[in-house]
Amino acid sequence: MRFHKPLIICVLALACACRKPATVSSPDGFIGVAFALSEAGEPSYTVTVDGASFLEKSALGLDADNVNLSGGFKIKKISRSTADVTWTQPWGENKVNRDRHNAMTVSLEGENGVRMDIEFRVFDDGLGFRYCVSASADTLILRGERTQFCFAGDGESWSIPGDFNSYEHLYRRMPLSDVKDANTPITVKFSESLYASVHEAAIYDYPEMVIKHLNGTAFEASLAPLTRKADTPCASLGGSFASPWRTIQITRSAVGLVNSPLILNLNEPCKIDDVSWIRPMKYIGVWWSMHLGIESWGGDKYHGATTEAALHYIDFASENNIQGVLFEGWNDAWRGSEALPDFDFTKAAPDFDIEKVLSYAREKGIAFISHNETGGNFTRFEGQISDDMDWLEANGIHALKTGYAGSGLYGGIPRHSQTGVRHFQKVVEKAAEKHIMIDAHETIKASGIRRTWPNFMTRECGRGMEYNGWSAGNPPSHHEILPYTRLLGGPMDYTPGVFDVEYRSIAGKPQVRDWGRPGTECRVNTTLCKQIANWVVLYSPLQMACDLLENYNEHPAFQFFRDFDADCDASEALQGEVGEWIAVVRRCGNRYFYGATTDESAREITQPLDFLKEGVTYDAVIYADAMDASWESNPYAYTITRQTVSKDDTLTFHLATSGGVAVSFIPAP
Ligand code: CA
């Protein structure tokens, strides 16, 4: 009877597991997670930080038709593992990342033989958990989630509203307990030494999540429905599926959140064999003029993307160390309205000689960035994807910006629904096949899938520069919130870099469209130097200098953009506070680029240069706000100074109201 003893131990362990919570801690012991099952078999979890309660009892589970995924469970097995690996990616804030975590999987058996594994991974900078379901049904209709985040205390929060059709909202700063609903990442400051952000990682074939207020500081996950009709389910899934990871980054400092690779660590390794064609780059393009209202997407004499303009842009790029040029409106489809265009993305506008432009770009070694504005008509785009991508590949075009302007997707489908998630995944996989990098606007949220699909370079998903062209614009604090919220999910194609922040150069030019009215109430709400610094702060592997070329011509400060390298190796957010300011440095080979920006408050920054390499002397070129600069009344006043520095030095900077400083550190010859 030799096998009886282990059997008894196993049964006892199970009996104990049902009564006592199953726990797992971060490798450094900072964060602890405990799983429990109620007498009715309902799963829940709690989280502690530094031994104190952080999340009180919070429900787990899903709601589905005809199968109970929120109760009636028994624990079948609890397994644990640890990991400590480093992995690399072809591009990113950091090309080398460390994944150190402890994992616990609770395998549950429910009614009618349904299985649900709840996987927890606990890192030193937060945790993630997900549901892996296996039911006998072929199709499972998901109605929602039971997942709760019941915070033990209140804090100051930053978030945009929970909107299943758009992320282009201004951020709200308010006590966590006042938030009715929020999109993620939602970031909370609980104390001077405790920050957290709720988000999700690895979203595939599943609707996106917002969090909704329950009571006090307790929230519940809410999923985008499949359609806008009442009582629509959230997803149609196979009998076996895995949900995205629900994530909570938890750090002792605000910049700790920015430096956390947790979202990437919860994504799968790269699925593209040859990544040699995937390259970060700086770009310029025919774009800002349309938002300023002085040129059009096509169909009239104001068309911006003409052959003549294209050749001029290519010349400028080639003379100024810029690698790519975007041509919005080259393919005669988009008219800047929601009216459905009869588009063919491979057909050029009559005044755009595509053969000539492509040949000139090739001759000058400049990447042609194509543009497909779908107006949200994703089914029509899907019908063209094969032809379109074949055409791009055949013409040596490796970068494509996609747009889905409008409220939600065509046919009343919420943009952030399972259907939307499926569409954007289809586009990125098809693009990978054809060696095309994607820059998607009006797309789904960034959840770290760039690790798995590194051709998904960047995306908008937030209020970018365009809002300054035709609205009251983005306030000074906007750029001090984005790095701590939106950018925790991944890169943003914000398109910073407007030098003419008051649109002086277009004064008197005719307004060619009927929306927006630049020149009077519209402007960019920063100083010139903050625009430069935002190239460092607002990370994007495709980084655009978006202003009209005439504003860059001969401008001394454009040298920073010439020197800047979009392909960084390592990054660190050095100092800052959510909604107030941030200082970031990025290393590119043996050079460093530093950027610091502030909200409406002027600020003096003391910056130790201990990030520089030991034993190397650097020529630092400092682009700083002048002492009398201010975003409202004197935005253009700046200085460029040069200094020889090393690792042991400390620099001090003055940042004007909504100002910034940018520094390039190049090894001295
Ligand atoms: Ca947009």
What is the number of helical segments per DSSP (H or I, 4+ residues)? 13
**How big a fraction of the residues is strand?**
35-45%
Q: Cofactors and ligands present?
A: calcium ion
Largest sheet: 12 strands, antiparallel
Gyration radius over CA: 26 Å
Structural summary, described in words:
The protein is built from 13 helices and 35 strands. A hairpin with a 2-residue loop joins strand 9 and strand 10. Helix 5 runs parallel beside helix 6 and helix 7 runs parallel beside helix 8. The chain is globular. The model is unreliable at 1-18 (pLDDT under 50). The longest helix has 17 residues, at 378-394. It is an alpha+beta fold and 669 residues long. The strands form six sheets. Strands 5, 6, 7, 8, 9, 10, 12, 13, 15, 16, 19 and 20 form a twelve-stranded antiparallel beta sheet that branches. Strands 26-25-24-23-22-21-27 form a seven-stranded parallel beta sheet. Strands 28-29-30-35-32-33 form a six-stranded antiparallel beta sheet. The structure holds calcium ion. Calcium ion is lined by residues 168, 441-442, 460, 466.
